[in-house]
Amino acid sequence: MSPDELVYLGVLAASIPVGFLFRYLSPPVKQGAGLLLGLSLTIATCQIHALHSLVTVIGTWIIIKSTWRCAPALCLGWTFLYLLFFRLVTWFGLPAPTPFANAIQLLLTLKMVSLANEVQSYHLEKKKEVSSFSKSPVIGGLSAEPSLYDMLSYSYCYVGIMTGPFFRFQTYVDWLRQPSPLTLPAVAPCLQRLKLVPVYGALFLAVNSVFPLGYVRTDDFLNDNFFFRLFYMTAVFFVFRMRFYAAWCAAEAGCISAGLGCYPEGAMSKPGGGPTVSYSPDPNAPVAYDFKTIQNIDCYNTDFCVKVRHGMRYWNMTVQWWLHHYIYPNSPFKAYVLRAGWTMFISAYWHGLHPGYYLSFLTIPLCIAAESAMEGSVRARLGPGGQSAFDWVHWFLKMRAYDYMCMGFVLLKAGDTVHYWTSIYFIIHVLAVGCIVFGRLTRGGKRGEKRGEKEEGKVEEMESKDKLKEGIRAKQD
């Protein structure tokens, strides 16, 4: 492991016992201590580069105070433009930021855009309440506009400051105001999330030592057997998954120990977003709690879901929520595949400027189009047994597609990525295009794509119906 990875590991390990101590603090002390600890970590790991995050927060605060109506769009533009400057600082004669500064800046960008949207929703609902004299049906809305101190406390809260998960400002406020944090579940769910971390870590170290990424960049790699070269991407993606499984499960454990994101199961919380319905538990009945709000990875479904489009939902789940709510709905395109492509482009930009990110992320819409074409032209015409066999083949190809795309994500450079993809004859691109052509020839492609769009539309429709139902309940109450 590199020195930077050891520092990340140390921060993750320390955050878990520290989280249990935070349950004993009052809200004001918890807010101040969380800010002080997070700011200390930032300064210790970023040094002078900590100013980048401070400038981002101050700029967002000025925008929100100046015009809350346009704050979401302006903050998105401000934070993404600052990301560009942050990554090109060496062009201006400034020192390159540390990897820790980059990690903090990435998460801070998500937080500031989300906060701007939350503040806008607060003001809009407040105006509706004044005009209609009725309680707002919005779930988990702010009760007041945050001050600069609140914004700084949220931005530099030590929980997940470098590793995630992303959480909304309202989730942070709910954490501060928990009436009885010591009565909330802690040790059991924390251990449940940590139990496989040693396994993930051991597998990461073992497989990484046998299949080092650097070997792909050598000319000797091309002299190996084709099937060995093809298998290499599977090993690399396995190492990639084990690394993030271990890190994100440990990061979630740090949130759980502190009680962040703990809500009653009846609130039907979603990763990143928090509760989706208002829920008042019966004081005379036992209440079950969950930590879905801060769940960032579903290891099982990441590996064993069938479709490419579904695989994204279980990986980096809190960021996927952010993309789904703030980027996908505002896409300039209407077709599902194109909207997915736009979202993946924004995701690639958020990750960085390395060409490998774009080559990987923009391959996802092609794979989605291919699986939609095959679903419409082949699967729809099969019986139950045939569909089951189709799904197993689909799952196998989904995993190979992610293996293939992972190479661009880890190799970063366009030359290295193309070097590897050339060595295996761009097999996934060729296969995806072949599936699309086959679907078009059998006239199933468009139908399959429409099915994919309808499927995505149903998800959005169900979410809107849930919000509408809750609004009706709130008015009745």
Automatic annotation (TrEMBL):
One of its GO terms (molecular function) is lysophospholipid acyltransferase activity. It is found in: Endoplasmic reticulum membrane. Pathway: Phospholipid metabolism; Lipid metabolism; phospholipid metabolism. Its main location: endoplasmic reticulum. It is a multi-pass membrane protein. InterPro entries: LPLAT_7/PORCN-like (IPR049941), MBOAT_fam (IPR004299). It comes from Gadus morhua. One of its GO terms (cellular component) is endoplasmic reticulum membrane. It comes from the Eukaryota. It holds the Pfam family MBOAT. It catalyses: a 1-acyl-sn-glycero-3-phospho-(1D-myo-inositol) + an acyl-CoA = a 1,2-diacyl-sn-glycero-3-phospho-(1D-myo-inositol) + CoA; (5Z,8Z,11Z,14Z)-eicosatetraenoyl-CoA + 1-hexadecanoyl-sn-glycero-3-phosphocholine = 1-hexadecanoyl-2-(5Z,8Z,11Z,14Z-eicosatetraenoyl)-sn-glycero-3-phosphocholine + CoA; a 1-acyl-sn-glycero-3-phospho-(1D-myo-inositol) + (5Z,8Z,11Z,14Z)-eicosatetraenoyl-CoA = a 1-acyl-2-(5Z,8Z,11Z,14Z-eicosatetraenoyl)-sn-glycero-3-phospho-(1D-myo-inositol) + CoA; 1-octadecanoyl-sn-glycero-3-phospho-(1D-myo-inositol) + (5Z,8Z,11Z,14Z)-eicosatetraenoyl-CoA = 1-octadecanoyl-2-(5Z,8Z,11Z,14Z-eicosatetraenoyl)-sn-glycero-3-phospho-(1D-myo-inositol) + CoA. Belongs to the membrane-bound acyltransferase family. The keyword Transcription does not apply. Residues 446-477 have a biased composition (Basic and acidic residues). This is Leukocyte receptor cluster member 4. The chain crosses the membrane at residues 7-25, 37-64, 71-94, 196-214, 226-244, 333-350, 418-441. The gene is MBOAT7. PANTHER family: LYSOPHOSPHOLIPID ACYLTRANSFERASE 7 (PTHR13906:SF16), PORCUPINE (PTHR13906). One of its GO terms (biological process) is lipid modification.
